[in-house]
Amino acid sequence: MQIYLPIAEVSVNAFLLLGLGGIVGILSGMFGVGGGFLMTPLLFFIGIPPAVAVATEANQIVASSFSGVLAHFKRRTVDLRMGLVLLVGGLIGAALGVQLFTMLREMGQVDLLVKLCYVVFLGIIGGLMFLESLRAIRRSKNPTTVPERKKHGLVHALPFKMKFRTSGLYISVIPPIVVGLFVGILAAIMGVGGGFIMVPAMIYILGMPTKVVIGTSLFQIIFVTAFTTLLHATTNYTVDMALAVLLLIGGVVGAQIGTRIGVKLKAEQLRILLSIMVLAVCAKLALDLLIEPSELYSIGTGGH
């Protein structure tokens, strides 16, 4: 069943969009990521213009993340205090990111920038997560070499410390605010919740337990992506509601399924699965940029 998307100005199969929303919702519940790192490139692949894909996907992430976070609230695996600190940085970052997005769109360079950002960030983050996950799996198989929780020197040396009881931490609020700021900028420019950056940052930089990280990440993602969608809709007019509703329906259902799957897997298994998916999407995007270079020129001159 074909449906015309008025803002994107293309016709797409409605069942295909529902299916994509469901897949991304499952990832949201399993890994604590909004799923935008996967959905936005998938929308590129089926012909949705990057500017519309970025703004609309931010809207869909709100719903799938909200559905996922409800399940985590029931299990008490959300650190609300940490989530609020991350949110402060996230809202500031989102406002800055939308301003940058608007400026690049006026120059006609935003489509190319979005795709290049995906290749760079997904490649770096996916590679680091994969290597760290392999090390964690090796340690879990050899209990005699499992290290005690490390104290992260820089994080513990900074001022403005706060207790985060759910996470069992007493650290400065500065690193969480910086992580939130960076994720907010990414949400605006790349149409992602930023979970693929935030989850490893919360585990490896802040030292939070993996099970708490997922629910807390989703909590912060909801508000940052909602704010980002509002800014895009009012400044760039690139939010396609018909597209968003179809992705949203699939995403809400998928998130509930994903949360149940995530509980049954070990933390190390979750991390390595996420890293493999990140690398696979990165490879596909990089190939598209290399194989179809003619698109780079049309994107570059689109604003003139």
Automatic annotation (TrEMBL):
What is the protein's membrane topology class?
Multi-pass membrane protein
Principal location listed in the UniProt entry: membrane
Could you name the domain of life of the organism this protein comes from? Bacteria
Name of a matching Pfam family: TauE
Instruction: Provide the transmembrane region boundaries.
Output: 12-31, 37-59, 80-100, 112-131, 173-206, 212-231, 243-263
Residues making up the signal peptide according to the UniProt record:
none
One cellular-component annotation, GO = plasma membrane
Keyword annotations:
Cell membrane, Membrane, Transmembrane, Transmembrane helix
> Subcellular localization, per the record?
Cell membrane; Membrane
Q: Please report which protein family the annotation says this sequence is part of.
A: Belongs to the 4-toluene sulfonate uptake permease (TSUP) (TC 2.A.102) family.
PANTHER family in the cross-refs: MEMBRANE TRANSPORTER PROTEIN MJ0441-RELATED, MEMBRANE TRANSPORTER PROTEIN YTNM-RELATED
What is the protein's name according to its record?
Answer: Probable membrane transporter protein
Which organism was this protein described from?
Litoreibacter albidus
